[in-house]
Amino acid sequence: MTTTAELPGSVRKFLDRPHTATFTTLRPDGTPHVTPVRFTFDAATGLARVTTRAGARKARNVTAGGPAAPVALCQADGFRWATLEGRATVTDDPVRLAEAVRRYTARYHAVPPTPPDLVVIEIAVDRVLRLNL
């Protein structure tokens, strides 16, 4: 277990690679919902971002989980992986959405889908688990 302030360069480099991750949220009944996502992570601030539709199950789960819904993002490549755990919120604030789109575009070299109900799930990462990094 590591906090974002203690992340070695190898982990930061791995999390900068344009991979997808699994994103785990909790449904209102407490069961996990896992879905593949593209995301960005700012190690300096400990903030991860996932853009999605407001009506998507993951966004609805985070909203139902309250102001600090527990979530996890896990990026894997063979026997190397890093999981970012933290508390999430959903916002449609235009400034925060623009920053999420900017970071996504830089990481994946493509603009994310932009449905009319675009939101960003922001995750305040408080723990990083890793293997072989």
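That was protein one. Protein two is written in the same sequence-then-structure order:
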Amino acid sequence: MEGKVSRPADERPAGAAARSHLTSRAAILAIVMCAIALSLAYPVREYVAQRREIAELRHQERVAQQQVEELALRKQRLGDESYIKREARRRLHYCMPGEKCYVVLDGNGATGKQDPQAASGRTPPWYATLWRSVEAADRR
């Protein structure tokens, strides 16, 4: 038995012990890192969602503030008598006493004679088109 030399467990080749020890450490480290990542995933997702919601609410606040400013300006204008008169003339076609007002109905200021080309360019109402198609189908 002199040819066989027994080695204690501490004196194994360096590569074998280091590999098994390193892989178990790496596995434990990987498990710990996954646990940390999983435990942080939900709070980070909620944080991002809340930041997005805050940004959206700030945008809505700016839009509402603009609307308030526009309405305040409109309220101020409606308190002005000259603005009210101007709008009454423009929208409601009011005339002041002693004024002669004219209303042009065709919108282009023509003399009242209709242009035959303009009249032919108009599309007939839907029911006229429908009735013509029914008559055409009945003839065949």
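DSSP finds four helices and no strands in the chain. Keep this in mind for the problem set.
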